Amino acid sequence: MEACATHGPSASAGGRVFRAALPPFEYLAATSVPEALRLLAKFRGRAVLLAGGTDVLVQMRTGKRVPEAVIDIKRVAALGGGVKVERGGRIAIGALTTLADIEHDAKLRRLVPLLPEAVATMASPQVRNRGTIGGNLCNAAPSADTAPPLLALDALVRLHTRKGVRTMPLAEFFTGPGRTALGTDAVLGAILVPKPPRGLRAAFRKHGVREAMECAVVSVAVAVAKERGTIRHARVVLGAVAPTPLRVPAAEALLVGHPGGPLDLLAAAGEAADAARPITDVRGSSDYRRDVVRTLVRRALEEVAG
Hints:
By secondary structure, the protein is α+β, with helices and mostly antiparallel strands. The chain is 31% helix and 25% strand. It has 3 domains: 2-72, Uridine Diphospho-n-acetylenolpyruvylglucosamine Reductase, domain 2 (2-Layer Sandwich); 79-193, Uridine Diphospho-n-acetylenolpyruvylglucosamine Reductase, domain 3; 201-305, Enolase-like, domain 1, CATH 3.30.390.50. The strands form 5 sheets. The protein has a 5-stranded antiparallel sheet with strand order 6-7-12-8-9. A 4-stranded antiparallel sheet has the order 13-14-15-16. A 3-stranded parallel sheet has the order 3-5-4, with helices on one face. The radius of gyration is 19 Å and the shape is globular.
């Protein structure tokens, strides 16, 4: 999340200087999905949506975003609703659900603890009380902490467009750093998590250069379900090591049909490291990140499959 940057009128992040005041913009508050879509169409890519604001406002202060209009969607009831368990066991999470609500939701902790456990590592309590899960996904940072666990759970997203509502796999939602399938004329309505396979065990691991308010240098989510001692279902997902969160089917294939012994886990971890496409920056070199991927994947798999 952008909230991990240093704040202040004279501070800088990524070479950008924080402004003492926001640039001029038109503020508009939508009260329904059709109204939000109409306003997006009116400004043709020159508007941003405001939910929690923990990413957007920071980006405006650094000049990364200079919109003509800010469309506040916090009052759009159709985008909220918290966490619901639908018929068949699917979980629906409204896009405006705060990270703090996800962290503490009893249903999620019981059914898919991977997600609240990952959210608990994010930013600070203040940011989690303000930021939303939809905003974290729509910001589309490669290091977004909600993305790997949701991808490991085979999550879907529900999108609202002027042509109607459509659902797509979260894996297809991210199109590049800061870019999603929403484009400039759609709104994220909900995140949908299918009923997990029986016996699913999952783990999230995150590595950074400090303990508080940390953006991931590498993050990993794994999920494994066994039947009679053999892995029948496996997911391995990486964050912060590619332009988008990255699922690694080749690593999963090395696990399915095997008992999950030490050699199986080492092979899968090595495949995940090979699949990573990290950059070198001030927080770590590409080689360092690959080594961290190998270690985190192995440790996470040892926890759930060993």
